[in-house]
Write a structure and sequence with these properties.
19% of the residues lie in helices and 27% in strands. With 235 residues, it is α/β, with parallel strands linked by helices.
């Protein structure tokens, strides 16, 4: 990379420094907006014992399912088990530590980490196992749970377009967890569909400023559908 140019020409360069026992945030919701190529590259690396923060772990043999299949993840912080049979098996066998977190709380924990907020109070989870071992407090007529923020060593995210300086635009619901994760890691790597010249993006429509981005790589995406339901034809 040269100066402000953050474009990487290959995946090993984009993931340089990622190592065992680190904390890894991965954007996406189901299979929507996941950095497919970056995840696949991690699955080929000799790293293990990762703490992974993601809404869920995708499906078998694709996305984060590849890392679970290789037993590269030690702890998974997610909002649900989803459609991944390996995820379910490893959780039930206690081979994988799973910290299930309400989806809105998970999003706010990541956003708080990026904003420099160490913790926040939320009513979600009070009186349930989610609140066990955490500080609780009554404010007004409601009880709240103190939730610590989340940060990571690396964030792997996906965007639609980027310029060479790392300014990003996401497309529709593929944004999901990606913008907040971009701000909450020591090193943020983004995989994009298109890289354009600096000045090509309208500043009014940039979702993540390049100051948060460390590396960019252009990828190719399968864009799988997690579940597809078809209505039977009627005569």
């Amino acid at each position: 990379m040269n100066g402000f140019n953050k474009v990487c020409t290959d995946y090993p360069s984009a993931l340089a420094g990622l190592a065992s026992h680190q904390t890894l945030m991965v954007g996406g919701f189901g299979l929507c907006g996941i950095p497919e190529g970056l995840i696949k590259e991690v699955s080929t690396m000799e790293i293990k014992a990762l703490t992974c923060i993601s809404n869920n772990a995708g499906v078998d043999n694709f996305g984060l399912g590849l890392l679970l299949q290789n037993k590269q993840i030690k702890t998974m912080i997610a909002s649900y088990v989803g459609e991944n049979a390996i995820f379910e098996q490893q959780m039930l066998s206690q081979e994988l530590e799973v910290i299930l977190t309400p989806q809105g709380t998970l999003a706010e924990k990541i956003r708080a980490g990026g904003a420099g907020i160490p913790a926040f109070y939320t009513p979600t989870g009070f009186g349930t196992p989610i609140a066990q071992g955490k500080e609780t407090k009554k404010i007004g007529d409601r009880y709240y749970v103190l939730e610590p923020a989340l940060k990571a060593d690396f964030a792997l995210i996906k965007a639609w377009k980027a310029d060479h300086y790392g300014n990003l635009i996401y497309r529709h619901t593929a944004a999901n967890f990606n913008p907040m994760m971009a701000t909450a890691a020591k090193t943020t790597v983004v995989e994009v569909e298109e890289i354009v010249e600096v000045g090509s993006l309208d500043p009014n429509y940039i979702h993540t400023p390049g100051i948060y981005i460390d590396r960019i790589i252009q990828g190719k995406f399968e864009k799988r559908i997690e579940q597809r339901t078809l209505k039977e034809a009627t005569s």
